[in-house]
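Lab notebook, bench 4. The sequencing result for the construct came back, and we need a structural model before the next group meeting so we can plan mutations. Quick request posted to the team channel:

Model the 3D structure of this chain.
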Amino acid sequence: MQNKLLIVDDEQDVREFAANFFKKRKIDVIVASSGEEALKAITNECPKLVLLDIKMEGIDGVETLKRIKEISKQIKVIMLTGKNDEDTQAKTKKLGAFDFIHKPLELQELEKVVLKIFNK
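Done. Here's the predicted structure in token form:
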């Protein structure tokens, strides 16, 4: 599995901000604006890591996580959340989420987690 990063967020500015940050660090980045797009990208691109927003229109992040894990248990998923919702965090942890990052994104914190996964 290559060091590809899939960023899934329905907010275009968040996607572009994070994508540009990681592209500057020579990481292969794919973006998706919905759970549906994310599932297609996972099938076509086989990313090693997914940054997945919890709150999205259509298929939300929790359902998307569940479907990602049905496709491949090897893909690491970091959930992006705007609030500290312990019930959702517990549910996604049980579904296989690797970690949680709170919005607004702290890029140094995010970079540490991403590089730790890619350097394994």
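The two ends are 12 Å apart (CA to CA).
Will bring this to the meeting.
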